[in-house]
Amino acid sequence: MRPIAPGSGPDQPPLFEPLGETVLLLRFGDRVDAALSARVHDALACLRAARLPGVIDAVAGYASLALHYDPAAWISGGAPWRAFADAVQAALAAGGARPAHARRTIDIPVRYGGEDGRDLDAVAAELGLAPDELVSLHAAGDYSVAMLGFAPGFPYLLGLDPRLHAPRLASPRTRVPRGSVAIGGAQTGIYPAELPGGWRLIGRTPLALFDPAREPPNLLAAGDRVRFRAIDADGFAALQARTTLDAA
Amino acid sequence: MSVVVLEPGLLSTLQDRGRHGHALAGVGHAGAMDEVALRLANALVGNQDDAVALEFGLVGPVLRFDREATIAIAGADPDARLDGVAVEAWRPLAIARGSALDLRRLRRGAFAYLAIGGGFASERVLGSAATDVNAGLGGLHGRALRKGDCIAFDGEGRGVPGGWSIDPRPWFDPDPSRPLRALHGAHFGALDAASQAALFGREFRVRAESNRVGMRLDGAPLALAMPLELASEAVARGTLQLPPAGHPIVLMAEHPTTGGYPRIAQVAAVDLPRLAQRRPGEPVRFEPIDLDEAQSRYLRREAELARLCDAIRERLHR
Question: Is A105-247 a CATH 2.40.100.10 domain?
Answer without folding.
Answer: yes
